[in-house]
From TrEMBL:
Listed name of the protein: Fe-S cluster assembly ATPase SufC
InterPro entries, per the entry: AAA+_ATPase, ABC_transporter-like_ATP-bd, FeS-cluster_ATPase_SufC, P-loop_NTPase
Name of the gene this protein is made from: sufC
Keyword Nucleotide-binding among record annotations: yes
Entry keywords, A to Z: ATP-binding, Nucleotide-binding
Transmembrane segments: none
Pfam family, any one: ABC_tran
Length: 254
């Protein structure tokens, strides 16, 4: 079983001509087959963690390690990360003009699998995955993310997740515009890949509402650039009732 290990991760960004430390020693282990939720207030660094794992150039790793099965993830190019089995929803460009969803998915699958999927089985695979997500077949011919609604972006993300079958998936569910329908699509997709037992999921959110549909094995509270508490699914219920105040005293978070 593949294991993603994050040890004492420190990350800075350049903003307003100053270097700001955002992640201040993150420790986390995610194994294939496990579902983890990271929750925390706005500005605590959750998306920064996701971007850092994705290899976004804006984020500088100043300390710590990230390994997947002992291999140094931080040394890998974005493509190599995907091939190693990491799925990072946000590593993909916001808009890809002139590239259809269908071509984009095949290119991604080729990168991940190391060879182009056979056209005939691939077309069937995509069709079936789209049906499961209640997606109109015409969607496959649209340009990636061009004019996609929030819900369509999410469906596209889950479509990739199901087709690319990663070992570890990191999903940043920050979009406050998700309606019940999109929420259900994301949840069902995540639960489907979870049932295979072959995908480890790290779900980042500040809402507990998605956790009504996805029961995480582990919940971690993120505050001021670190994980400050970990527990089981019951921790999410506690956060729903009590909020994050207990974790943010001292004005550590925006
Ligand atoms: N590229 C950047 N340039 C400048 N500041 C940044 C950048 N990325 C993150 N930050 C700052 O780092 C802090 C953490 O931001 P981040 O987006 O990681 O928080 P978050 O926990 O995902 O919040 P939210 O729940 O609102 O999505 C914020 O103060 C943010 O302004
Ligand atoms: Mg965020």
């Amino acid at each position: 079983m593949a294991t993603l290990e994050i040890r004492d991760l420190h990350v800075t960004v350049e903003a307003d001509n100053a270097t700001k430390e955002i992640l201040k020693g993150v420790d986390l282990t995610v194994k294939q087959g496990e579902t983890h939720a990271i929750m925390g207030p706005n500005g605590s660094g959750k998306s920064t963690l996701a971007y850092s794992l994705a290899g976004h150039p804006k984020y500088t790793i100043t300390g710590g390690t990230v390994t997947l099965d002992g291999e140094d993830v931080l040394e890998m190019s974005v493509d190599e990360r995907a091939r190693a089995g990491l799925f990072l929803a946000m590593q993909y460009p916001v808009e890809v003009p002139g590239v259809s969803v269908s071509n984009f998915l095949r290119t991604s699958a080729t990168a991940v699998r190391g060879e182009a999927p056979k056209l005939r089985t691939w077309v069937k695979e995509v069709k079936e995955a789209m049906e499961r997500l209640n997606m109109d077949p015409a969607f496959a011919e649209r340009n990636v993310n061009e004019g996609f609604s929030g819900g369509e972006k999410k469906r596209h993300e889950i479509l990739q997740l199901e087709l690319l079958k990663p070992k570890i998936a990191i999903l940043d569910e920050t979009d406050s515009g998700l309606d019940v329908d999109a929420l259900r699509v994301v949840s069902e997709g995540v639960n489907r890949v979870r049932e295979t037992g072959e995908v480890g999921t790290l779900l980042i959110t500040h809402y507990t509402r998605i956790l009504r549909y996805i029961k995480p094995d582990y919940v971690h509270v993120f505050s001021a650039g670190r994980i400050v508490e970990s527990g089981g699914a019951e921790l999410a219920d506690k956060l729903e009732e009590e909020g994050y105040e207990a974790y943010t005293k001292g004005g550590a978070s925006a």
